[in-house]
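Project outcomes to date are best conveyed with an example. Our students and postdoctoral researchers have been running inverse folding experiments weekly, and each run begins with a structure described purely in tokens. The record below, which covers 332 residues, was selected by the lab manager from last quarter's runs and is presented without edits.
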């Protein structure tokens, strides 16, 4: 049955048609009983579930926020980037959907296999370059006549921008994005077979008064090793692994061998700036600690014990007298 919810007007119209004989209830039941045949295009194989697409959308919503912050700081103008859509389509369809001449950044994401494309609409790319060179962010589209200086500026800017992908993907994989190619003609990019399924995340982008799209194309081969991490079960998993007794003993032994800095406070005092500036060799600074008073012993700069100074085998030492009773749970 269809999951579509009928409005009250549609329900009334249906009841009216049944009551007047315009529609036969038995025929409706027969139609429902018949097998529903759904056309399946093997060229558009759906290799990701809706759940996994939603997870990728959430990840790239975070990436969009990071890009907004990055470009706002770099360009010193109004920047707004947000996820418009996330779809899985054949690679050939993605290539056909983007302009014939555009800005294509191809980067690897080791340790994952394959390469990812970030396609930036020329209007957006030129607005960025104009801002970097001190302009108002005017948008032009002369990608066919890209100069070496413009290419270098774009290359450097997008190379730094994709660094934010590392943080956005940190929940599913530790990647190290590396920009490997900068291209303007998509026909020269044949990363995977034409029928290979890719996920395309489209980002609505506004730079000052210019607007356009940034498309991120991720082939299935890149995501294949981390597909299990894109499911709800992975995100909602709360079960914790129990620590085995032998592991606990090993952990305790290693912790006991850990070295921590211990210091004894001989005392403190306060002096004025004028007194500090007039200090000379031989001057004596009086502390607020009496000689017969016990000293505070600190572990990692946190008061833990009370002790008294002395000597041990010719070295300065301190004897622990009691634990420090200085306050709350942190001092225990």
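After processing, the design step wrote out the following sequence:
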């Amino acid at each position: 049955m269809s999951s579509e919810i009928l409005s009250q007007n549609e329900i009334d119209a249906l009841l009216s048609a049944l009551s007047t004989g315009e529609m036969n209830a038995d025929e409706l039941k027969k139609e429902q009983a018949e097998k529903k045949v759904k056309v399946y295009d093997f060229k558009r194989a759906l290799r990701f579930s809706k759940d996994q697409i939603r997870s990728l959308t959430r990840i790239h919503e975070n990436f969009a926020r990071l890009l907004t912050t990055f470009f706002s700081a770099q360009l010193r103008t109004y920047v707004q980037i947000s996820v418009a859509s996330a779809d899985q389509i054949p690679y050939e369809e993605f290539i056909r959907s983007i302009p014939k001449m555009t800005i294509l950044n191809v980067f690897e994401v080791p340790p994952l296999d394959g390469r990812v494309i970030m396609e930036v609409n020329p209007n957006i790319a030129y607005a960025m370059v104009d801002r970097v060179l001190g302009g108002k962010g005017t948008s032009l589209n002369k990608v066919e006549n890209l100069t070496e200086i413009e290419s270098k500026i774009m290359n450097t800017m997008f190379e730094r921008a994709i660094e934010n992908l590392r943080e956005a993907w940190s929940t599913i994989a530790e990647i190290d994005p590396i920009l490997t190619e900068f291209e303007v003609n998509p026909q020269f990019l044949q990363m995977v077979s034409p029928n290979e399924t890719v996920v395309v995340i489209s980002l609505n982008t506004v730079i000052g008064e210019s607007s356009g799209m940034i498309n991120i194309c991720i082939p299935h081969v890149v995501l294949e090793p981390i597909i299990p991490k894109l499911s709800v079960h992975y995100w909602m998993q709360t079960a914790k692994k129990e620590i085995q007794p032998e592991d606990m003993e090993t952990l305790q032994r290693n912790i006991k061998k850990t070295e921590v800095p211990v210091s004894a406070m001989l005392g403190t005092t306060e002096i004025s700036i004028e007194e500090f500036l007039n200090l000379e060799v031989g001057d004596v600074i009086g502390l607020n600690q009496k000689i017969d008073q016990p000293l505070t012993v600190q572990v990692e700069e946190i008061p833990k014990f009370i002790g008294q100074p002395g000597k041990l085998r010719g070295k300065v030492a301190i004897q622990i007298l009691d634990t420090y009773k200085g306050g709350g749970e942190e001092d225990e």
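Residues 327-332 have pLDDT under 50 and may be disordered. Residues 50-75 form the longest helix (26 residues). The training component of this project remains on track.
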